[in-house]
Amino acid sequence: MVGSIAAIGMGLAVIGAGIGIGNIGAKAMEAIARQPEAVGDIRSNMILMAALVEGAALIAIVVSFLVANPN
Amino acid sequence: MSIKTLFTLVFLFFGGLLLAGSGDQHDHGHDGHDHDTHEAHEDHSGGHELSCEHASFGHHGEFDAGATAFHHISDANVYSIGPLQMPLPCILYNNRDGALHMFLSSEFGFDNLGHGDGNYAFNGYVLDGGTVRMIADPEFPMDKTEIKGIIHDDENNAYVCVGDRMYGTYAKSTADFGLFGGGITPFYDFSITKNVVSMIIVFLFMLWMFLKIAKAYKLREGQAPKGLQSFIEPIFVFIQDEVCKPFLGDKYLRYQPFIMTLFFFILGLNLFGQIPFLGGSNVTGNLAFTAVLAIFAFFVTNLSGNKHYWEHIFWMPGVPAWVKTILTPVEVLGVFIKPLTLMLRLFANITAGHMVIIIFVSLIFIFSQNGESMVGGLGTVIPSGLLSLFMMSIELLVAFIQAFVFAILTASYIGAAIEDHHHEAAH
């Protein structure tokens, strides 16, 4: 039971990160289309931002993992 | 054929197999057995359903994809190249007799060709799933003892069987303080494990490669790069231009060696872990390893932090005092959360990738009902191979991206710590 709830929590965390990273990707694509010469800057900033969003989701995933395996 | 059609076909194929498989399952009499285990589980009397009657080595009963995946991503005291198993030195210390035991893991008597754990206990230690466990019972004979098998309960506790008697064991000794199960154990495993060997191999390879390239730059000064030099130079210049210069500013040369070491070491280990049948070591997917990298990043960041960095953490300028009371704890937490996410990101990405590949390969064993159904097994070989291939190419990309992300984030943390304060007006 605890494991299932933890799994749901993990799924919820992934939804949030998915929306966040999706937005970052979409806006980065848009920015590259508008200004193709800035592709280098945009790409590295996109990866940086995606990594930061991912970090929040990872903490949630690890917490749910720890809750699911209490021993 | 478009990718979409291909995927649709693959999923339809699996759906069909799943339906066919579920029809078969009722013929076997396994269902009743499962219920017994669950009921007996209510009383925590130690042994409950477990008994040494059926204990033996080798894979028997139901195929457990999750356990297989965890076994393959975890560290081991044997190094397996394909079917070949090579013994590694074990260095073990325990609190009970206070002695340091050093021996080769071949003392456990595993087959050099195959996939077993060996059927001997040595010095009160056994090999379980490739990793050393210590037998908890002090009465257990300390010399080389033949054992009948190792059985596991639902909570991943292992019991060693000698004759019909069961001996409990301690959890595996891991450097993550048992964060993922086990807790702190009464014995410490300092062995040269599979991960350590892979790390040494990659370290020596990197040393050889970069010394060779450095020599090439001296010998061929002013000439175009050649061979290995021309392969590494674009990668090096890319990290220098994309990571070091923009984030670290004028003093980038001071921190560049650290960033480059991080990048190339992580990249090398990521790619080394990707090579099939060559040990399949999962070093960058090991929490202890990523923790060490993150601790390095933590110390380099905070020890090089200037006055403005600490001022922004403890007493953020330009905001009202009541906001500072909220901001300061958040910023202080942020100092520790940054390396924590650095550690978890690399660990989770690499581990998840490895696990997905193993699960895809496991599909063959799931659909063939662990060798009972020939049709299911043969039918899944090609889709499973294609899915694994797809996942491995994604992993190749992830190996580069994660090494890059680790480097860029470390550089941005260091950059924020050493930044000169020239945006005073903004506050």
Number of helices of chain A: 2
What's the number of domains of chain A? 1
Give the amount of beta strand of chain B, in percent.
Answer: 5-15%
Number of strands of chain B: 12
User: Helical proportion of chain B?
Assistant: 40-55%
Q: Give the spatial strand order of the biggest sheet of chain B.
A: 4-3-12
CATH topology of chain A: F1FO ATP Synthase
- The average pLDDT of chain B is 79
Descriptive report:
The complex is a heterodimer of chains A (71) and B (427). By secondary structure, chain A is mainly α. Chain A has a single domain, classed as F1F0 ATP synthase subunit C (F1FO ATP Synthase, Up-down Bundle). Chain A has two helices and no strands. The mean pLDDT of chain A is 86. Chain B folds into two domains: 130 residues, no CATH class; 231 residues, no CATH class. In chain B, a hairpin with a 2-residue loop joins strand 1 and strand 2. Chain B is 54% helix and 11% strand. Chain B has 427 residues and is mainly alpha-helical. Chain B has a three-stranded antiparallel sheet with strand order 4-3-12, with no helix packed on it. Chain B has a three-stranded antiparallel sheet with strand order 9-10-11, with no helix packed on it. Chain B has a two-stranded antiparallel sheet with strand order 1-2. About 10% of the residues of chain B have low confidence. The relative contact order of chain B is 0.10. The radius of gyration of chain B is 26 Å and the shape is globular. In chain B, helix 3 crosses helix 9. The N and C termini of chain B lie far apart (58 Å). The interface between A and B is medium-sized, with 16 and 22 residues.
